[in-house]
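The freezer alarm interrupted the setup, so I double-checked each line after restarting. Inputs confirmed:
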Amino acid sequence: MSDRQLAVEFRGVSKLYGALAVLKELSLSVPQGEKIALIGPSGSGKTTVLRILMTLETIQAGTVWVKGEPLWHMPKGDGLAPASEPHLHAMRRHIGMVFQHFNLFPHMTVQENVARPPQIVLGVTRGEAEQRAQDLLRLVGLAQKGASYPAQLSGGQKQRVAIARALAMQPAIMLFDEPTSALDPELVEEVLAVLRDIAIEGKTTMLLVTHEMSFAREISDRILFLDGGAIVEEGPPDQIFSDPKEERTRLFLKKIIAAGHRID
Amino acid sequence: MIWDWDFALRIIPDILRGLGTTVIATFFGSLLALAVGLVIALANRSDVTAVRRSSRGFAEFIRRTPLLVQLYFIYFVLPQAGIVLPPLLCGVIALGLHTGAYLSEVYRAGIDGVPRGQWEAARALNYQQGQTWLKIILPQAIPPMIPAIGNYIILMFKDSALLSIIAVPELMSMSRNIGNDSYRYLEPLTIAAILYLLLSGIAVLLLRIIESRSGMARLTG
Amino acid sequence: MSQFSDYAWMILDGTWVTVKITVVASVVAVIVALLTGVARTSKFFWIRLGPTLFVELFRGTSCYVQLFWAFFALPFIGISLTPFVASVLVLGANVGSYGSEVVRGAIAGVPRGQTEASVALNFTKLQRFRHVVFPQALVAMLPPAGNLFIDLLKLTPLTSLITMSDLTYNAMAVRQQTGSTFIALATILVGYFLMSSAIAWAIGRIERRASRGLETGPRAA
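Predicted 3D structure, all chains:
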């Protein structure tokens, strides 16, 4: 056992779509408060790791642990049984997620998007939720946009609202699934700035799937390189980017640089 | 036993004769509806504002008033103007007009669905107006219309039961007469309902097959 | 002159009955459409089965046949309905069955990302439906629902055939007493047109209000 409690642990997790294995007996430990970046080519399974944690995808083998409790299973006798909906509901309390395509609620204003979920799910009073929403919107630089509808915002603004909405639920673990991939290039930085603030603040465990290599290098404590549904190589950012041990990692980084991305 | 099988079997031949009239009414009603819809759709695109306004107003009026009252109007008012038509023809006219007003919208949607670029390409290739319609626009506009047209015809088939009210000897009329004569309504009305259900169900299935075929042709062709 | 006012009263009386049938049957239709429409989005076959059969049954025959069956055939199996109850139940079930498809389609049309976001925010299944899926589906339901309410109004003259003294029934009575067929029928055609137009106008207003925020951009916000 490590001295820090683990926020997330995968033990031999396999995920299949029919005959296709998306994850192959993947194991992974994330101590509380650690910032992890998952990189790798598309189809490598990095997004699947997040979606399994958010209970959007089931697993076929292995176990996933969140804060020491099984996510997809419940203790039963000496062994484990498949998780019930109430169990999943209890576990999701620890986790929040930001999506590539924002998925804001189009029928709610920006303020409602951030203030309504805590009222509905956590039973927070209206006044408190409204206040916290205003604070969070200020944090992401959108204090004046509360009355707007998502359709009236730019992509970067939408993603910042989505981040505020996820933070409003006060999850211990935050998942970011390619949060800047759907944005026009000139809007990427405003979202990264918000992510940087969250990372610096420190307490929250972060799992970030991204193609922004220099950003991953800047904010993460550890990089995981995935390919073909398995972790090929992991280590501190400087080592992975400057001195990768594995040939596949080297090839991937070479392609990324060739495509015009910076990794420094 | 509530249901009388002997009685049910005895009345089936009469009811089936009514079904023949129903099919005839639906067939001619459909032809009329296809033509009426086309006339309205063309008039709606007319360059003359008065023509456009009145055809749109007419179609809207037909769509927003009940078929039964339209049927009464044709059946009772026309003779006063000296036009006496057999009941079946009145029924065909009512069905054709009513459905035609809806088909005009189907035509419009089909034609509007052809991308602007197609008109421009035809212009660029120096096609004449007639050639553009026949060779470029209609071949693309018609296939997507087929499911909607089919649905309206199936609707007309079911609605044609209304013709029994003006004494057209169709499916529903025969069933009601048997009921009136025998004071037993359960069997004739149930048999009629099952026949409508069966035939419209088969028509829907056929339509889906045609739809998926033409969909595939468009994908591969 | 006093006779004219008698006839005017009959028309007004009939209009009131038509409005009553339309309103009550609309409530039935909305309930039927929501219950069967939502049930048909279930992933469980056994939950879908009953509603699917119900809907197919009512869409496979015309409202007229169903109305006659409910009024004349049902008593043979021991169920006697008053004309009003038969009218609102049949019209409601018939139009509600078409509405069922509208509800099902609108719910299925809410983007998957919306459900995923509400899972990520830890909404329960019921909360997802109530706060996220349904409010968005409702906006998509309104335009087709408006047409269905008009369709329902247009079906109400059928109830005159099972002795409801609605607008059509009373107009036909006026026609018989006065002999002025054209005036009687033209009057009610205009009456139905005005009522349909009122429904279209009202739904248009509700639609504009409900689509706040949804109109200025793509659905996947």
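Quick read of the result. DSSP finds nine helices and twelve strands in chain A.
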